[in-house]
Amino acid sequence: MLEVDGVRFAYPRGGGAAAEAAGAEIHAEIHADFCVAAGRAAALMGASGAGKSTVIHLIAGLLTPARGDMRFAGRGLLGATPADRPLTCLLQTGNLFAHLTVWQNIAIGLHPGLRVDAAGRRAIDAALDWVSLTGLGARKPPSLSGGQRQRVALARCLARDRPLLLLDEPFSGLDDDLRADMLALIRGLQAERGTTVLCATHRLADAEALRAEVIRVRGRRAQSATVESPESPVTVESPESTVTLPPINPASAGA
Fold first, then answer.
1. 3-class state of residue 51 by DSSP
2. Beta carbons within 10 angstroms of residue 218's beta carbon
3. Which end of the chain, N or C, is less packed with Cβ atoms under 10 Å?
4. CA torsion, points 149, 38, 56, 6, in degrees to nearest 10?
5. Strand order through the sheet with 164-168
């Protein structure tokens, strides 16, 4: 289970942690208090600028909260470096290196010096197959389409095989069909590996595709908006409508 307990992060006027440490005036802050059951998906939903990305970055270790605690599977995350946390993160940009091949861009997620053992090579090849990029390992990112580049970034997450996957609106630049394909891949990953998924999005369709519980980000507060029981309906609210998704049957979650 991912637990975010009473976390507070302040945005100092002038920006940066150094400004806050120096006592700069705080012009905004975000509060986060929610949990995501192991092996389930949750969607951080809110308008642009509400703080969704900030929550993702706090969990990933890219930002440090002023107070509160974060745990995954009972293990505290605070104090651990991003590399030492049991998670992998897919951001709005895939963070691919243009001078490296597709294969190397995935391998760098396993070892920054690209020193990958036999098991790692098998994991990379399996990840390429999963995202339907077999045979493209020698290509470089500039020669790929936008959808293919995001598949490479997702393949790197697959090869790392961490139990928690964080998604920071990584498919916002894709058309609807490609976006649906990527979400289906993530749903399949969750079903096969039992990965816990937290996805920042402003689209109701993304929550539906992932069968995700909703964590509403309103007024810079992120709080669970649905019950956690897999047998209970999941209600997703939007300004235009309220959609109730059918209960998730754990026995058929991979269907």
1. coil
2. 13
3. C
4. 180
5. 75-76, 67-72, 2-12, 26-36, 221-224, 213-218, 41-45, 196-201, 164-168, 87-90
Q: pLDDT (tens digit, 9 = 90+) per residue, 58-80? A: 999 999 999 999 999 999 999 89
Say which DSSP state 57 is in.
Answer: H
Q: Supply 33's token pair.
A: 């208090």
The torsion defined by the Cα of 139, 144, 146 and 149, in degrees rounded to 10, comes to: -10
Q: What is the reported pLDDT for 12?
A: 66
Q: What is the mean pLDDT of the chain?
A: 80
pLDDT in tens, 138-151: 999 999 988 888 88
Closest CA to 63 of 25, 9, 20, 3: 9
CA dihedral sign, ordered 243, 32, 206, 126:
negative
State the pairing for strand pair 221-224/26-36.
parallel
- The answer to whether 67 touches 240, Cβ cutoff 8 Å, is no
Helix 146-160 to helix 118-130 angle (10° resolution) is: 140
Helices (H), 110-145: 118-130
pLDDT at residue 42 tops 60: yes
| Superfamily name and number for 1-86+164-172+195-226 | P-loop containing nucleotide triphosphate hydrolases (3.40.50.300)
pTM as predicted: 0.78
Q: Taking Cα atoms as reference points, which of 98, 92, 102 lies closest to residue 173?
A: 92
pLDDT of residue 177: 85
Alpha-helical (H) ranges within the chain are: 17-21, 52-60, 102-107, 118-130, 146-160, 176-193, 204-210
